[in-house]
Design a protein that fits this description.
The chain starts with about 25 loop residues before the first helix and ends with a helix. Helix content is about 65%, strand content about 0%. It is globular, with a radius of gyration of 18 Å. The model has no long low-confidence stretch (mean pLDDT about 95). It is built from 11 helices and no strands. By secondary structure, the protein is an all-alpha fold. It has one domain: Ribonucleotide Reductase, subunit A (Orthogonal Bundle), CATH 1.10.620. It binds fe (ii) ion (2 copies). One fe (ii) ion (FE2) binds next to helix 2 and helix 5. One fe (ii) ion binds next to helix 4. InterPro entries: UCP07580 (IPR016516).
Length: about 290
């Protein structure tokens, strides 16, 4: 599977940043909370893979790393624009993004590069699990505002396309054996605890900053159903989460490459949607927008 960098820029109408999801504002803010992690998170992924690039000799894997870096850079760019819409609407995306960046910068300073890569493969497994669930279950987001729906489906497809890259780097550069396994398993446990704690807090912060829904606590019930109902975003992720602890695990053991046939039609849809709105599907410079 060779990831390809695609210069994609879905049109996100600013007026819908707080209620673009078909299931209402609480679920919208849950998904928006995930968006806040991407700019700093994906830069961390890029850096931790890049730190090992010279240790990889296989030309195929080198090309895959270049594709991986290109894709994550595009995701970062689009999520910076996405998160700016939250900020403009009075939602605290910027301080929360700075918090994520501070945590990750601390990890860059104190952790050896092998531990940084271990965090990257754990979080890449998270993005692959979330992406796989979203692609397999049209109910999760179908009927939502088209531009926001498109940005998430595009991101999910590319996360799927490159889900094996960081892991292949890990398998190439780390000596096989018990200590490699233990580091991978241990990091998944700590990542699970810290990542979901942060998502939970970010979700509450976004909801509480939104005048339209902060008093409607029943909305949290709808969000809980979205996450833990049937099938439920998190509930359906459980088998894949446990699978990560199998000693011989590889992301492509779950073969969902058939989904990737959706990429080209999706890009045509993104262009058509932007044209309908009378805007360009080319990204404005982030610097100009920031
Ligand atoms: Fe990404
Ligand atoms: Fe990724």
């Amino acid at each position: 599977m060779m990831p390809v960098r695609r210069d994609v820029h879905p049109h996100l109408p600013a007026s819908r940043i707080g209620d673009w999801h078909v299931r209402g504002r609480h679920v919208t803010h849950f998904v928006n909370a995930l968006s806040i992690f991407f700019p700093a998170g994906e830069r961390f992924f890029i850096d931790s893979v890049r730190a090992y690039r010279d240790d990889v000799a296989d030309p195929e894997l080198k090309r895959a790393i270049a594709g991986f870096i290109g894709q994550e850079a595009m995701h970062t760019r689009e999520h910076i624009l996405y998160n700016k819409l939250m900020n403009d609407a009075g939602l605290p995306a910027a301080p929360l993004d700075r918090f994520v960046a501070r945590v990750l910068n601390l990890m860059r300073r104190i952790l050896p590069r092998s531990w940084q890569l271990a965090h990257t493969i754990a979080l890449e497994h998270y993005t692959a699990m979330l992406a796989g669930g979203l692609l397999a279950d049209p109910e999760q987001m179908g009927g939502s505002e088209p531009g926001y729906h498109q940005v998430w489906i595009w991101h999910a497809l590319e996360e799927t396309e490159h889900k094996g890259v960081a892991y292949d780097v890990w398998n190439t550069v780390m000596k096989p054996g018990l200590s490699r396994y233990l580091l991978r398993a241990f990091t998944m446990l700590t990542t699970t605890a810290t990542f979901w704690a942060m998502v939970f807090v970010f979700h509450i912060r976004l909801v509480m900053a939104d005048r339209e829904c902060r008093n409607k606590l029943g909305g949290f019930l709808g969000a809980a159903k979205f996450l833990w109902g049937r099938p439920g975003v998190l509930r359906r992720m459980m088998p894949a989460w446990f699978d990560y602890f199998r000693p011989g695990f590889h992301p492509w053991d779950h073969d969902n490459r058939a989904q990737l046939a959706r990429i080209e039609p999706l890009i045509a849809e993104i262009e058509a949607n932007a044209a309908r709105a009378g805007v360009s599907s080319r990204a404005p410079s982030v610097r100009a927008a920031a």
